[in-house]
Write a structure and sequence with these properties.
single chain, mainly alpha
Length: about 100
């Protein structure tokens, strides 16, 4: 990436990879309270991203092969958004049920 756009594009690319890894970590932390399948999916996507990141150190992606990296990043973003939404619903459900129990008592 640095060959195409220089230092600014390389820094942006590194920031994109870091944000992808951070999103995977957040999904794994939130996934402890949610479903195990979602945690496994996040781990798998993180492994795929790690494979792409290490491949970029030795081989330059060209033509349409970079699309696989973009698809991996898009999948990470989708799983992260869905997990945050699910976590917010679960918190709301727990708070709603606590209020119902308090009103019944």
């Amino acid at each position: 990436m640095g060959v195409i756009g220089g230092a600014p594009l390389m820094l942006f690319f590194i920031a994109t990879l870091v944000s992808g890894f951070l999103a995977v970590g957040k999904v794994l932390r939130l996934g402890k309270r949610a479903f195990i399948e979602r945690s496994f999916l996040a781990w798998t996507l993180g492994s795929m991203l790690f494979g792409h990141a290490t491949t970029f150190l030795s081989v330059s992606y060209f033509d349409q092969s970079v699309v696989f990296l973009y698809v991996t990043l898009a999948a990470i973003g989708s799983v992260y958004a869905a997990t945050r939404r699910l976590d917010a619903r679960m918190k709301g459900f727990v708070e709603c049920s606590r209020q119902t129990v308090a009103l019944a008592a």
